[in-house]
Amino acid sequence: MSLLHDLETTILSRKGADPDSSWTAKLLAKGPEKCAEKFGEESIEAIIEAIKDDKAKLASEGADVLYHFLVMLAARDVALDDVLAVLAERQGLSGIAEKAARPTS
Ligand SMILES: N=c1c2ncn([C@@H]3O[C@H](COP(=O)(O)OP(=O)(O)OP(=O)(O)O)[C@@H](O)[C@H]3O)c2ncn1[C@@H]1O[C@H](COP(=O)(O)O)[C@@H](O)[C@H]1O
């Protein structure tokens, strides 16, 4: 079990919990759209720190991004392992080759 899996387990345990006692429960109670919006906000804050090259703040905002990403996944019943499986499939395949192999729409 990785730290991210542990955090996912904690987040899933907050589904239906008292929103007054848990930030995660409060966020999940607002629905998947709000969770996605919050993930977007946190991502923008990380982008700003990356542009400013503030390494400490980027690490801090990066932690917020990972947490809110897991909350967004939980809100839509997507498991962290589903994301990791996609990453695992891509291992050893260059991004350029992966893009070229995508079906055209
Ligand atoms: N990793 C986190 C984590 N990262 C960030 N946050 C919270 O995310 C919130 C976002 O910060 P903001 O400053 O954007 O919040 P805000 O400005 O009040 O939000 P808005 O009202 O403006 O939308 C803060 O309340 C942070 O405390 C987190 N809350 C929880 N966790 C993890 O989740 C676990 C369970 O937490 P609870 O669900 O609160 O028990 C914790 O033990 C941690 O491991």
UniProtKB/TrEMBL annotation:
Gene3D superfamilies for the chain: MazG-like
Family: Belongs to the PRA-PH family.
Keyword terms, alphabetized: Amino-acid biosynthesis, ATP-binding, Cytoplasm, Histidine biosynthesis, Hydrolase, Nucleotide-binding
GO cellular component terms, semicolon-separated: cytoplasm
InterPro entries listed in its UniProt record: HisE, PRib-ATP_PPHydrolase-like
Catalytic activity entry: 1-(5-phospho-beta-D-ribosyl)-ATP + H2O = 1-(5-phospho-beta-D-ribosyl)-5'-AMP + diphosphate + H(+)
Chief location bin: cytoplasm
GO molecular-function term, one example from the UniProt record: ATP binding
Protein name according to UniProt: Phosphoribosyl-ATP pyrophosphatase
Biological process according to GO: L-histidine biosynthetic process
Localisation: Cytoplasm
Pathway the protein takes part in: Amino-acid biosynthesis; L-histidine biosynthesis; L-histidine from 5-phospho-alpha-D-ribose 1-diphosphate: step 2/9
UniProt entry tagged with the keyword Hydrolase: yes
Top-level taxonomy: Bacteria, Pseudomonadati, Pseudomonadota, Alphaproteobacteria, Rhodobacterales
Enzyme Commission numbers on file: 3.6.1.31
